[in-house]
C-alpha cells in the first residue's frame, strides 16, 4: 500500500468590486475561457465585504463559481484622489490571495482576461507549473508613461502586470504587504501594479 498523496490544490480567482453588470459578464466570459480550455478546478470570485458587488453572489454561485467574501483593502491615503480613487478604490484587495488558506497556488486574474492557450497546446493549469515553487510569479509589462499617447519605447516603463499574478499563500507575506501599504506615501496612478513592482 502506497503513501497517501494529496495533489496540489490550485485556484483561479478574480476580484469584483463593482455592481456594474459588465463586470459580471466579463467574469462569466473568463470562466468560460478557463473551462473551455481544460480547467476543471475551482474558480473563485473575491467579493469585498460591504461592497455593492455582493449583489452578484447568487448569479456567480449559480454559474458554479465559488464566492469568497474578503475584507476590503482600500488604497493608501496618498493614492486616494481623482480617477485612481474612483476607478481602483479596492484594487489592493487582490492581495488577500496571500492570506487564503487551503491552496498551493492561486492565480488572480482581472476580469478582462481571457484564456486562449489551447490552440497553442497550453492548458490553464500550465501557469501553475511554469511558476514552480516561486512565492510570487507575474509577468512584466510595458506601460505608457502617464499622458503618453503611444507605446514608444522611450515613453514606457516596465512594471508587473497586476492583471495576472500567481502566488503561494503566505500569512507572513500578506502581513508584510499590509504593513508596506500602511506606510506607503507615494502616488501611483496604476496602484497595485506600481506598488508591487
From TrEMBL:
Source species, domain of life: Eukaryota
Xref: InterPro entries: GNT1/Glycosyltrans_8 (IPR050587), Nucleotide-diphossugar_trans (IPR029044)
PANTHER family recorded: GLYCOGENIN SUBFAMILY MEMBER
Designated name of the protein: Nucleotide-diphospho-sugar transferase domain-containing protein
Organism: Polarella glacialis (Dinoflagellate)
